[in-house]
Every structure is written in structure tokens, then in C-alpha cells.
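Reply to dn_fold:

You asked what the input looked like. This is it:
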Amino acid sequence: MAACYGIWVLELIRIARHIGSFSVMDIVCYPLLLLFYLAIFLRSLVKRVLGRPVIWKDREIRLDK
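and this is what came back:
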């Protein structure tokens, strides 16, 4: 698993040079950053489904159509 992850990181480093200016640490921590994003997204989705307010930066986000 560690070898596969290492190869994946090397490939992301190669790709990142062409699409932006990402540091190696950004790429290595990418799975953690992705999990953080998904946690925020899923939390908002659950609140939306349950009809509870979604609050961002002390403001309620209106989700009316």
C-alpha cells in the first residue's frame, strides 16, 4: 500500500506542475484535505435533507428554490 501511495504522490506531483503551483506537502496531504472537504459537504447535505439551517461564517445560507 505504501508503494502504491508513493507512486500516486509522484504522479500527482508531475500533474500538479502543469495545472498550478502546489507544494509537495499539499500533494502528500491531499487525502486528508479531501476528507475534510467531504465532511463539510456531507454535514451540509444532511442539514439540508433534515430541514435544518446551514450556517457559514455566522450567516444562514438560504436554500430556497
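The longest helix spans residues 30-50.
Hope that clears it up.
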